Amino acid sequence: MDRFNAMRVFTRIVELGGFARAADDLQMPRASVTILIKQLEAHLGVQLLHRTTRQVSPTLDGAAYYRRCLQLLADLEETEAAFSLTRHHPRGLLRIDMPVGIGRLMVIPALPEFSARYPLIELEIGLNDRPVDLIREGVDCALRGGPTLDESLVARPLVQLQQVTCASPGYLRQRGIPRSPAELEGHQMVEYFSSVSGKRYGLEFFVDGQLRQMQLPKQVAVNSADGYLAACEAGYGLVQTPYYNVARQLQAGLLQEVLQDCPAPTLPLTALYPPQRHLSTRVRVLVDWLVELFARPGNLTSRP
């Protein structure tokens, strides 16, 4: 029995909650996964998993063993990297998750440079406006905008994204161009709400150094970034969004920026990864490259 491979299989079963899901995730025959776990339990002399027809969960011994496996697997990868070509030429699959707009407009167009620098890394990219469970879904690194809420993950700040307030030209012709938040009476907004938490977001402005939050009347609420901008272009009201998301629309005249003298707060963009990936060479070179990418001028993180 390959004990390290058995540990890897065991950790994915715990994270995914089932043998079949782990087998699919690792691209292994399901029978091989079952045999490996039976051999591992026999070798250790303890039961690691509770098995029911609906769910698989770790026993008390299994939970303790899972935590040790994570550290051992991370240490193994780092040790191999330190004494092999992997240290300078990282290889293998790297699973990344990021918001749709950041991926489509900022990261993916620049990725050929990363692939040329690290040709042995295979990228699997998920584009989601919903937050993913990195452990359960087997994601190595995720990019997230906004405050970091999960303290169990390692967080590395990437950049502060400048946000802009804008509306369609047709809407502004009908309602007028506001010069300050005090002139927003009679205006409406497109509301954004989280499909996960249900939280609803209004507008925020810095006025004389103080943050002011405002809720305007609405006709439309959406739960995706693309839908949010589409409703704005259709004339349903004001929106606030990172500049990268609307740079093309502003340049083409499809949207018009307003209230430049009362800016919205910046939005932190952060790279998140599980603690056991902290020493992964693949994750480290990706995050270092992302820091480099977002530090370049003209990268759509702020208006020119």
From TrEMBL:
Mind telling me which Pfam families this protein's record contains? Answer: HTH_1, LysR_substrate
Which InterPro entries does this one have? Answer: LysR-type_TF_proteobact-type, LysR_HTH_N, LysR_subst-bd, WH-like_DNA-bd_sf, WH_DNA-bd_sf
Top-rank taxon: Bacteria
Q: Does the keyword Secreted apply?
A: no
Alphabetized, the UniProt keywords read: DNA-binding, Transcription, Transcription regulation
An example of a Gene Ontology BP annotation on this entry? Answer: DNA-templated transcription
Which Gene Ontology molecular function entries are recorded, alphabetically? DNA-binding transcription factor activity; sequence-specific DNA binding
- CDD domains, per the entry: PBP2_CrgA_like_3
Which residue numbers delimit the HTH lysR-type domain? 1-59
Family in the record? Belongs to the LysR transcriptional regulatory family.
Record protein name field: Transcriptional regulator, LysR family
Q: Which organism is it from?
A: Pseudomonas saponiphila
